[in-house]
Design goal:
539 residues; alpha+beta; Uridine Diphospho-n-acetylenolpyruvylglucosamine Reductase, domain 2; Vanillyl-alcohol Oxidase, Chain A, domain 3; 4 domains; five-stranded antiparallel beta sheet; 19% strand; globular; binds flavin-adenine dinucleotide; binds 2-acetamido-2-deoxy-beta-D-glucopyranose
C-alpha cells in the first residue's frame, strides 16, 4: 500500500517535472481532454488533431501555443498551459468550441493577435482551452461603399495593406503596431495616428458577427443595439467570440507627410515637451504630433540625458505642414529636411519603425520582435507643471529604466466631438493627451522581472499627482491587472467597479447590465472581464 502510493507519487512527480506543459488543469483533476475532443468531433468531424486541435501530446503544441504570445512574460515554463489550442479554419467550427467548453466546465481564452498586455488571451488560472482565430483572417474591401468586412484573426497590417491595394485615398484609423489582431484590438477601442482626424477604430464599426454563450452566431440586427454597443470598446472576451467586424473606411489624401525630431534636455527638450502639452490637442485635426521619450546616453560615463522625440503624421503635403508648424509650434524649429512625403500606407511602416521595408512587411505576423514588458496608461486633463518633469527624468535615470519608454499621444479634434457614451470607450473631450508608460527588459534579466515591474509601479505613483483622478482613467487595451482583478471572474459589480470605472468611467454600469442579459452565467470571463449586473429583478 505504502509502496503503491509512493510509486504513484513518483509518477505524478515525473509527469509534472518532465513536462512543464502540463496544465494546472491536470492537477485540479477534473476535465478530461479526450472527452472535450470527443464532444467537438461529435458536432463536427473537421477538428483534425495536430492541425485544428493541438493537445499537449501533439508535436506542434508548443509552437502553436507560443507563436501567439507577444509578451514573453507569459510564455515561460511556469505559465499555466491550455489543455488544447484550437485553430478553426471555418467559422462553423467556433460554436462547437463554445458549447463543448461550457459543457465540460472549461474556460475559454479567445486569441486573435495575442498582444494582450497581461496575457489574457493565452493564460488562465482555471482549466482552459485557447481558441486561436489566426486562420480566420479574410479581408473583403468594398471601395464603392467605403466599407470592409474583416475577420478577427487578421492583423491590422494586413488590413492597411489591403485597403491601400484597393484605393490610395482610403485608410482606417487604428493602431500603430502592424501585428495587432483585429479581434482584440477593435474590441478595446483602437487608436493610432488618425485619432485626431477620425477618432478610434471602434468608432467606425457598423456591424459584427459574434458567437454568444449559447453558441449562436449573431449579427448586428439579431444581437440588438445593446450588445452591439458593448462590443465596440468594452474590451474583448466578455461578451462572446467576435468572428468579424464590418467597418467604414475613412478618406486620406494621396500624399501625407511625416517627421521625427529629437531634442535632448540640453536642447530645451523639457520646455518643448511642457509647451507641447497645452497646444497639441488644439492643433489642426490634420496634424498629429505625439511625443516619445526615454533615456539616451550613459549614466556611467556621465552623459545620460533624455531624448524627447516629436513624431508626427500630417494629412497633407510638406509645404502646408511647414506653414502650420510655423504658426502653431515654431519653438520646435521644424525644417523641410526633417520631413518626408509618402503615401498613407507607407506612413504605417514609418510609424512602426520600419520605413525601408517593402509594403508586404505589413502582412508578416512575426515581423516584430517579441518582448518582456510591463505597461500602464494614464489620461491628462491639465498640463504637468514644468518642475514636475525633473522628477520624471530622475526616475528614468534609474538602473531599471534602461528599457523604459513613455509615450504622450495628443487627443482633441474628432475625439472631442464624440460623446463619452457613444461607445464604451469614454475618454473624449477634456483630455489633452493619453500616456503609455512602458518598461522592457531582456531574457537574461527576466529572472528579475519583478524589479522592473516594481520600477514601473513607482513611475506610475509619481505620475499620480499630475493625471486624471477619481477615477484615474486607463485604457482597456493597455490592460493592467494592478488596477484590480476579478476573483477568477467571480467578483461583485462593486468590487470590479474599481478597475471598471478606470477603463470605462460612467459606461461600466451599462456594460455590466448588458453582460447580465447576454451572458448571465458569466461563461466568458477572465481577470478583468465585465461582471454581470442583474437589474429589473425583484429582491
Ligand atoms: C506592440 C504593441 C503595440 C500596440 N499598439 C497599440 C496602438 O497603437 N493602439 C492601440 O489602440 N493599442 C495598441 N496596443 C494594444 C492593443 O490594442 C491590445 O493589446 C489589443 O487587445 C490587442 O489585440 P489582439 O487581438 O492582438 O490581442 P489578444 O491578446 O488576442 O486579445 C486581447 C483581448 O481580447 C480578447 N479577444 C481577442 N480576440 C477576440 C475575439 N475575436 N472575440 C472576443 N474577444 C477577443 C482576448 O481574449 C483578450 O482578452 C499595442 C499592443 C502591443 C503589444
Ligand atoms: C463542419 O465544419 C465544416 C468546415 O470546417 C463546415 O463546412 C461544416 O458545415 C461543419 N458541419 C457542421 C455540421 O456544422
Ligand atoms: C491543416 O490545416 C491547414 C490550415 O491551417 C489546411 O490548409 C490543411 O489542409 C490541413 N491539413 C490537413 C491534413 O487537413
Ligand atoms: C497523451 O498520451 C498519453 C500516453 O500515450 C495518453 O495516455 C493520453 O490519453 C494522451 N492524451 C491526449 C489528450 O491525447
Ligand atoms: C531654449 O529656449 C530658450 C528660451 O525659450 C531660447 O532662448 C534658447 O535659444 C533655446 N535653446 C535651444 C537650443 O533651442
Ligand atoms: C554619450 O557618449 C557616447 C560616447 O562617449 C556617445 O557615443 C553618445 O552618443 C553620447 N550620447 C549622448 C546622448 O550624448
Ligand atoms: C517576417 O519577419 C521576420 C522578422 O523580421 C522574418 O524573420 C521572417 O522571415 C518574415 N517572414 C516573411 C514571410 O517574410
Ligand atoms: C462565486 O461566488 C459565489 C458567491 O460568493 C459562490 O457561491 C460561488 O461558488 C463562486 N463561484 C466560483 C466558481 O468560485
Amino acid at each position: 500500500m505504502v509502496n503503491l502510493s509512493i510509486s504513484l507519487l513518483f509518477i505524478f512527480f515525473t509527469l509534472f517535472s518532465s513536462s512543464s506543459l502540463l496544465a494546472r488543469a491536470t492537477s485540479s483533476g477534473s476535465p478530461d481532454t479526450q472527452s472535450f475532443l470527443q464532444c467537438l468531433s461529435l458536432r463536427n468531424n473537421t477538428f483534425i488533431p495536430n492541425n485544428i486541435t493541438y493537445t499537449q501530446n501533439d508535436s506542434s503544441y508548443s509552437t502553436v501555443l507560443n507563436s501567439g504570445i507577444f509578451n514573453l512574460r507569459f510564455a515561460s515554463p511556469s505559465t499555466p498551459k491550455p489543455l488544447v489550442v484550437i485553430t478553426p479554419i471555418d467559422e462553423s467550427q467556433v460554436p462547437p468550441v463554445v458549447e463543448c467548453s461550457k459543457e465540460h466546465g472549461l474556460q475559454i481564452r479567445i486569441r486573435s493577435g495575442g498582444h494582450d498586455y497581461e496575457g489574457a488571451s493565452s493564460v488562465s488560472q482555471l482549466p482552459f482551452v485557447i481558441l486561436d482565430l489566426l486562420n480566420l483572417r479574410s479581408i473583403d474591401i468594398d471601395v464603392e461603399s467605403g466599407t470592409a468586412w474583416v475577420q478577427s484573426g487578421a492583423i491590422i497590417g494586413e488590413l492597411y495593406y489591403r485597403i491601400a491595394e484597393a484605393s490610395p485615398t482610403l485608410a482606417f484609423p487604428a493602431g500603430v503596431c502592424p501585428t495587432l489582431g483585429i479581434g482584440g484590438h477593435f474590441a478595446g477601442g483602437a487608436y493610432g495616428t488618425l485619432l485626431r482626424k477620425h477618432g478610434l477604430g471602434a468608432d467606425h464599426i457598423i456591424d459584427a458577427h459574434v458567437v454568444d454563450a449559447n453558441g449562436r452566431i449573431l449579427d448586428r440586427e439579431s444581437m440588438g443595439e445593446d450588445l452591439f454597443w458593448a462590443l465596440r470598446g468594452g474590451g474583448g472576451a466578455s461578451f462572446g467570440v467576435i468572428l468579424s467586424w464590418k467597418v467604414n473606411l475613412v478618406p486620406v489624401p494621396e500624399t501625407v507627410t511625416v517627421f521625427s525630431v529629437q531634442r535632448t534636455l540640453q536642447q530645451n527638450g523639457t520646455e518643448l515637451l511642457h509647451h507641447w502639452q497645452s497646444i497639441a490637442h488644439d492643433f489642426h485635426e490634420d496634424l498629429f504630433v505625439r511625443v516619445i521619450f526615454s533615456r539616451i546616453g550613459s549614466v556611467e560615463t556621465g552623459n545620460a540625458t533624455i531624448g524627447v522625440t516629436f513624431n508626427s503624421l500630417f494629412l497633407g503635403g510638406v509645404d502646408r505642414l511647414l506653414s502650420m508648424m510655423q504658426e502653431s509650434f515654431p519653438e520646435l524649429g521644424l525644417v523641410r529636411e526633417d520631413c518626408e512625403e509618402m503615401s498613407w500606407v507607407e506612413s504605417t511602416l514609418y510609424f512602426n519603425g520600419f520605413p525601408t521595408q517593402p509594403l508586404d512587411f505589413l502582412l508578416n505576423r512575426t515581423a516584430l520582435d517579441k518582448r518582456y514588458f510591463k505597461a500602464k496608461s494614464d489620461y491628462v486633463t491639465q498640463p504637468i507643471p514644468l518642475a514636475a518633469f525633473e522628477g520624471i527624468w530622475n526616475l528614468l535615470y534609474e538602473e531599471e529604466a534602461a528599457g523604459a519608454v513613455v509615450i504622450f499621444a495628443p487627443y482633441g479634434g474628432r475625439m472631442n466631438e464624440i460623446s463619452k457614451s457613444a461607445i464604451p470607450f469614454p475618454h473624449r473631450a477634456g483630455n489633452l493627451y493619453s500616456i503609455q508608460h512602458l518598461v522592457y527588459w531582456n531574457a537574461e534579466d527576466n529572472a528579475e522581472s519583478e524589479k522592473y515591474i516594481t520600477w514601473m509601479r513607482k513611475l506610475y505613483r509619481y505620475f499620480g499627482a499630475y493625471v486624471s483622478k477619481s477615477p484615474r482613467a486607463a485604457y482597456i487595451n493597455y490592460k493592467d491587472y494592478d488596477l484590480g482583478q476579478n476573483n477568477l471572474g467571480n467578483t461583485s459589480f462593486a468590487k470590479a467597479s474599481i478597475w471598471g470605472t478606470d477603463y470605462f468611467n460612467g459606461n461600466f454600469k451599462r456594460l455590466a447590465q448588458v453582460k447580465a442579459v447576454v451572458d448571465p452565467g458569466n461563461f466568458f470571463r477572465n481577470e478583468q472581464s465585465i461582471p454581470p449586473l442583474y437589474y429589473n429583478r425583484k429582491n
